[in-house]
Amino acid sequence: MRFLSIVLLLLLVTISPITSHANSHEQWEKLDQISDQALQLAKQERYDESKQLLDFFSKEFLKLNHLDHNYSMDELRVITVTHNDALEAIQASSLPFEDRVKKVIQFRLVIDAIRSEHQPLWTEMENSIMTTFNQMKETVMQGDDDSYQQQLNSFLNKYELIHPSIKIDISPTTVQKMDSHIKFLDSYRDEALKASTRIQQMEQMELDLQSLFDDMTEDDADPSLIWVMISTGSVIILTLSYVGWRKYKGHKQKGQTQHDFEE
Fold first, then answer.
1. What HEC string does 7-71 produce?
2. Res 97 pLDDT > 90
3. pLDDT-derived band of residue 221, with 50, 70 and 90 as boundaries?
4. Domains in the chain, ordered, with CATH?
5. 3-state helix/strand/coil string of 213-256
6. Which of 21, 162, 194, 252 has its CA 20 to 30 A from that of 124?
């Protein structure tokens, strides 16, 4: 019995992180739904209702803050900044419709990036971003400066949408590398650079940009969850083995006692 008590205790200890993870997942699912509803309302120009949901998000997020401390300070900063930007934009009647919705989209993508373990929503923009980038590179090769400026504006606008989200999912080193590429393109957009110089920069940028999306398609499971699953499985197997051994031993002793009695 003492052994079984120890096994049961170990089982409870290993299952408890799974329960905690499930509760946290449910909370983030709720927050994700709130951010999505706020975005849909913003797209319908129902700004007051969208604002109400963004305010509601703050209250629900504060509740989660007391239950779950798995997010980093950098993640917390990104959530706070994009939420504030979305809230300000949704109330700024002077802003064009596109700019107001853009800020809510950024916030929506960030919350999804926090919640999603694999292939967050921002990765769905890969085809659009890479297509625009390739078109931009072609205009450089053709020497069409006007078209280049238009494609560059389009690319920067699309990249800006996912920039807060990649801070959640991608390593700071990779983000900084991409930021340096972006800064080069934007800072020297009006400079009379040689086409070869600009192309060289863009070719390296293309590799880093593609790597950004490729990294998010890898199926990397959470090591801590794997360890919990292995530990739980081991305890269960150990328990079943012990129970089977005790049962076998009991039958064997019973058979021996019956044999001795018959003799």
1. HHHHHHHHHHHHHHHHHHHHHHHHHHHHHHHHHHHHHCCCHHHHHHHHHHHHHHHHHHHHHCCCC
2. yes
3. very low
4. 26-115 (no CATH), 118-217 (1.20.120)
5. HHHHHCCCCCHHHHHHHHHHHHHHHHHHHHHHHHHHHHHHHHHH
6. 21
